Automatic annotation (TrEMBL):
Residues 32-254 form the Solute-binding protein family 3/N-terminal domain. Belongs to the bacterial solute-binding protein 3 family. This is Transporter substrate-binding domain-containing protein. The keyword Transport applies. It comes from Leptolyngbya sp. NK1-12. SMART domains: PBPb.
Length: 273
């Protein structure tokens, strides 16, 4: 595979003309899989000290190449920004997305999803060793990002907690460091990376909300085989323990391990489009 040519092709966007996503037989004919991933979100997808992409979702992308192509090395990992994720899939710039994409009704009208490979949700991080459980947060002040979905989740389950809005993760860290707040509430996948980079912090379990992360795939009957193969792969990973092993390896909360009831039926059945 001529990687330089391929990267130039991806960067050019084919002259700005939207192209149709490749079907499974076309992917196999060309001999490589293109997957949109995160490159700045430890431990899902990030650049290591050698500037190589690593992470839980990077492992999934490579394993999908092994399942669909027969060789996990035959994958092109295309970093994507959150706001661009759907566009690159809809424009055919990537074959699949494994980029912390949660399943929502709005997104499901545009793309199909595999069954979940991880259940993300709201967690808490603290540097106070006295705070080890949700009970310890009662009557405490907790930082939350302004306008985030975390706010109603915390208010519903921990009504006695006082909330302090912040504009950024850095602002939350400053409040934690100064002792102005006891904890910070945000997505468990993001906070896991926080703890890995700052070992003086710890996560407080369990998660207080659930948000299914899944592989995003193009809609349309021509992609039925691709969707079926991806879903069967995730099913095997659940049964063999590969998925649980990778979750543990990357230090993610194990309560995010999806159960066999975490099934997204519309993405398994053939598309009506």
């Amino acid at each position: 595979m001529q990687v330089g040519f391929l990267l130039a092709l991806l960067g050019s966007g084919h002259g700005g003309v939207a192209v149709q996503a490749a079907e499974l037989d076309q992917i196999r004919d060309r001999g490589y899989l293109i997957v949109g991933v995160k490159d700045n979100l430890r431990p899902l997808g990030f650049q290591d000290s050698q500037n190589q992409l690593q992470g839980f979702e990077i492992d999934i992308a490579r394993q999908l190449a092994a399942e669909l192509i027969g060789d996990q090395a035959e994958v092109v990992l295309k970093p994507v920004l959150n706001q661009d994720r759907l566009d690159v899939l809809l424009n055919g710039e990537v074959d699949l997305l494994v980029a912390r994409m949660s399943i929502t009704d709005a997104r499901s009208r545009l793309v199909d999803f595999s069954r979940p490979y991880y259940i993300d949700g709201t967690a808490f991080v603290s540097r106070d060793v006295a705070i080890q459980s949700l009970r310890d947060l009662q009557q405490q002040t907790v930082a939350v990002l302004f306008g985030s979905d975390t706010i109603p989740a915390v208010r519903f389950l921990l009504p006695s907690v006082r909330l302090q809005g912040v504009e950024s993760y850095q602002a939350a860290k400053e409040l934690l460091e100064s002792g102005q707040v006891a904890a910070f509430a945000a997505d468990a996948t993001v906070l896991t990376g926080w703890v890995q980079e700052h070992p003086d912090y710890h996560l407080i379990s369990p998660l207080i909300s659930a948000e299914a992360l899944a592989v995003a795939m193009p809609k349309g009957r021509q992609y039925d085989e691709l969707r079926r193969e991806v879903n069967q792969a995730v099913e095997r990973w659940l049964k063999t323990g590969w998925l649980r092993q990778r979750i543990a390896e990357w230090g993610l909360p194990i309560d995010g391990f999806p159960s066999f009831t975490d099934r997204i039926e519309p993405s398994i059945e053939p598309s009506n489009e």
